[in-house]
Each structure stands twice: as C-alpha cells, then as structure tokens.
Amino acid sequence: MATPNTLWLGLVLLGTLGVLQMPAQASVQPNFQEDKFLGRWFTSGLASNSSWFLEKKKMLSMCISLVAAAPDGGFNLTSTFLRKDQCVTRTLMLRPTGTPGCYSYTSPHGGGNHEVSVVETDYENYALLYTESARSPGQDFRMATLYSRTQAPGAEAKEKFTAFAEAQGFTEDNIVFPPRNDKCLEERE
C-alpha cells in the first residue's frame, strides 16, 4: 500500500512530467507603468470557469472600459455593456495591493474579494488580465481577459490570449471573443 509520502512524490513527478494539467501561475507585468495603462480599452476576449459565464457566453458582446487613476493609487474601471437591449454602465474601484499591476476589488455580486493582475501588456494594443477569487473551499472564480485599444484586436493578440487562457487551465469551451455591438461602444475618452 502506498504511503502518503509516496503518493505525494508520485503527484509531483506527474506534474513535473506534464501529465497533470495544472493552471500556470499568473504573474504580473514587469515594471508595470500605471500611467500608460490609463484610457479606453475594449473587452475583446474572455475565459472563465464561472457557471454564469458558461451559460451566458453566447449572449455576451464586446464592452468598452475606461481606466482612470484613483486617489488611492488604484484605478476606477468604468465599463459599459449591453444588457437586455440597454446600455449599462458600472464602475469598479480597483484598490492597489502593494504590487504594481495587481489590484483588488469587492464584487458587486455577492461581495467576494477579487484580485486582478495585469499579466502582460504593450500599453498601445493589448493587455492580458487575470482575475481570481476563492469564495469558499472548492469554489473558486477565475477569469482571463483580453483588453484591446481597438474594437478589432489583431490575430496575434487573439493568439496570445488563447495561449494565456489555456495556460491558466481554461479549455476552448471556456474561451469567447465577444462580437462587437456598436450600440454601446461609442468612441469615448
């Protein structure tokens, strides 16, 4: 009979050999520059393990988000999206965590604490973000997001996002590139 130590060693070896599909740990953009991240972004790609997301992903459309500096060193993230044929605007207060490029916020749905990290960005074209929250043991929320400065992200940005989402453990079924919806995507600064 295997002891707990030999079982653990076996799991470590399987993980090392790549047999177990464990999500890669999301990092933060090195030398993150908050001032360059400000401005308009379009949510061009999403991946999530949320049951709500999986049920509604075919109905999602691209939204526009404005990132503005907040007095506490964080961001105000104001997003406008289409819901039931109406444009809805919501603002999240992203509080700094002490690590540049990493922020926390309280979810307006259920009040859970979430942490969002800017994992990679070139500031001018795209940004890859990763959000996670542990609601309770066994119930985690994870989301990968592709932001783009335009409504038509290039193929390279989409490929980067797909690879990033898959590295976080998301499958093709968890990934969506929401279609444009001109009704709520006015060009605002």
TrEMBL record:
It is found in: Cytoplasm, Perinuclear region; Golgi apparatus; Nucleus membrane; Rough endoplasmic reticulum. InterPro entries: Calycin, Lipocalin, Lipocln_cytosolic_FA-bd_dom. GO terms for molecular function: fatty acid binding; prostaglandin-D synthase activity; retinoid binding. Residues 39-181 form the Lipocalin/cytosolic fatty-acid binding domain. One of its GO terms (cellular component) is nuclear membrane. It catalyses: prostaglandin H2 = prostaglandin D2. PANTHER family: LIPOCALIN, PROSTAGLANDIN-H2 D-ISOMERASE. It is an enzyme of class 5 (isomerase). Its EC number is 5.3.99.2. GO terms for biological process: cyclooxygenase pathway; gene expression; mast cell degranulation; negative regulation of male germ cell proliferation; regulation of circadian sleep/wake cycle, sleep. The keyword Endoplasmic reticulum applies. SUPFAM superfamilies: Lipocalins. This is Prostaglandin-H2 D-isomerase. Belongs to the calycin superfamily. Lipocalin family. Monomer. Keywords: Cytoplasm, Disulfide bond, Endoplasmic reticulum, Fatty acid biosynthesis, Fatty acid metabolism, Glycoprotein, Golgi apparatus, Isomerase, Lipid biosynthesis, Lipid metabolism, Mast cell degranulation, Membrane, Nucleus, Prostaglandin biosynthesis, Prostaglandin metabolism, Secreted, Signal, Transport. The keyword Endoplasmic reticulum applies. Residues 1-26 form the signal peptide.
